[in-house]
Write a structure and sequence with these properties.
- By secondary structure, this protein is an alpha/beta fold.
- The chain has a single domain, classed as Rossmann fold.
- 40% of the residues lie in helices and 22% in strands.
- A hairpin with a 2-residue loop joins strand 5 and strand 6.
- It is globular and about 45 Å long.
Length: 152
């Protein structure tokens, strides 16, 4: 599977949006596969939750949503290697108080570089979702600008 993902990373370099989402059920090996790609490409994985969380905690609650996108860009720039950004643990981005659209944020990053990210939700009938309907953090997206990479 790592060989297929590694080839895909090269194949997407010519696309406008270079976003690959690793999608699969919990414990299907998404993080492990991203780790293998990290070792192969000698690129660190940005674990958004702990890294961004440390930065956000220093900001007043009322300012976090205003600065989160710029903070993430600065952090991502430090993790990107050869125009490749590997991203995991993005659940923090779904926090309602941050007022973000996590997938749109990833898409913006993927305009400048290839982004391979672990998606913490599901793919059903060409729709990406995070959390269940009715949950306060529920999000639902189409696949525009996304290359899904399914792990079973």
């Amino acid at each position: 599977m790592i060989d297929k993902l590694d080839r895909l990373v090269d194949d997407i370099s010519g696309l406008n949006s270079k976003l690959v989402l690793l999608i699969g059920p919990p414990r299907s090996g998404k993080t492990s596969l991203l780790g293998q790609l990290s070792a192969r490409r000698q690129t660190p994985v940005l674990n958004v939750g702990p890294v961004l969380g440390r930065e956000l905690i220093t900001l007043p609650d009322m300012r976090r949503h205003l600065q989160v996108a710029e903070l993430l860009k600065l952090i991502a720039d430090g993790y990107a290697n050869y125009e490749l950004l590997l991203v995991d643990n993005i659940e923090l981005l779904f926090d309602r108080t941050l007022k973000l659209s996590p997938l749109d944020l990833l898409r913006r990053h993927a305009q400048a570089r290839r982004v391979i990210a672990v998606w913490p939700g599901e793919l059903r009938e060409d729709r990406l979702s995070y959390a269940t309907t009715g949950h306060p953090e529920h999000q639902d997206y189409g696949l525009d600008g996304v290359v899904p990479f399914k792990i079973h």
